[in-house]
Amino acid sequence: MAVLQLALFAVAVAAPPQVELSTLAGDEHRGELVALDDASLTLKKDDKEVKLPLAGLLGVRFTASAPPKRVDRGLSHVLFRDGSRIRSATANVSGRRGDFTGGQLGSFSVPRTAVLGIRFDSERSVDAAWAKLLDRTRKRDLLVIKKKSVLDFLEGSVLSVGEKEVKFLLGEDEIPVPRSKVFGVIYADRKITPPKPVCEVLLHNSGRLLAAKLQWTGEAMKATLSADGEVEIPAEAIRELDFSLGKVRYLSQIEPREVKYTPFFDTDFKYQRDKNLAGGPLRLGAKTYARGLCIHSKTSLVYRINTDYRRFKAVVGIDHHRAQKGLGDVHLVISNRDNKKILFEGDVRGTDEPRTIDLDVSQVRDLEILVDFGGDLDISDWLDLADARVTK
Question: Which one-letter DSSP state was computed for residue 73?
Fold first, then answer.
C-alpha cells in the first residue's frame, strides 16, 4: 500500500510539461505533452488528445513557469561533430567513451568519436581565436593553452581527459598536463557522415543538441544524437524543440540577390529585417511579429529560392505605427522573376485589415517583391510582410 501511495505521489509531482507548438500549415496548439516518437507528437488539449505528424511540425516551446537557475558558470563546453554543444561539470574521455556529468543533462556517455572538442576555460576575449582553431583543418589532435590572452597549441594525440590532468602524446613522449593549465582540446578531423537530424533541441543557457531520434518517456526526452550516442534531457532543461531544419526559411534570414530603390523624391528608405522603419517591432493590428520585412515604396527585392520550396506565406499590411493614423497606401506585386508571372498583386492601405497570403512558389527560382507607390505619393508607405517565409 505504501509503495502504491509513493507511486501516486510521484505521478502527481511529475506533471506533464506544458507546451506551445506551431505547424507548417500555420496552426498553433497549446496543451500537455503526452507522447512523442519517430512519427508523431500527441498533445492533451481541453481533455482531448491531438495527434500531430512530426513531418508537419515547426517548433515546440516548453512554457515553464520560470526559467531554471543558471548552472553554466564554471562548466566545460563540450562540442560534438554534428554541431551540438552542451555544458558539463566534469568531463572524462578515455578509450572509446566520453563520460560527462553535471550541467543540464545529469550524467551521460557518448562514443569518443562523437566529440569534436572540450573547452575548459570560458574567457570570452579569446572566443574568436578558439573558433578559428575549430575551423582549421586538423590531421592531429590539438592541446590548446592560453598565455595571457593569446591561445597557442601543440599538435599530437590526446590520450585521455580526466578531472585533474590531460594525457597528451607529443612525438614519442607521453606528457601528463594538469587540467588547470589546459584551455581546451580539439580532436583531429574524421571523415564521418552523421545521420540527418530530425530536430534541434534548444536548451536553456544556450545548449543545443541535434537529434536523429526523439522519444518522450513521460519524465524526460530521450534523444539519439546525430553525432552518435544517447542522452536523456529533463523537461525543465528544454527551451524548444525546433523541427524546422530546412523546412522553412524566413526572408529576413536570406540576403536578397538584388535590391533596387526608386525614391519618390530624393530619399532612399532602406528596407528593414525583423523591425519597422523606425526600429520598433513589426506590428499589424494588435499583433506583434518577431520576424518579417518592413519595406517602403518604391522598393524591389529579389530572392533566389531555387525552386527548393513549395509555398510563400506572409501576413501583409501597413505597419501599425502608420496605420493607426490611417496612413499608408502601396501597390504590392509578388512575381516569378524568371517568367514574369504575377503570383500576387493588390493595393494595401493603412485603413485595411491585415491579410494573409499563401502562394505557390514551387516553380520559382527568383522571387521578386515590388512595393510600388500607391495613391498618396510615398507618405507613410510602411509595408510589413510579417512572418514572410518560404516552406517545403
Answer: T
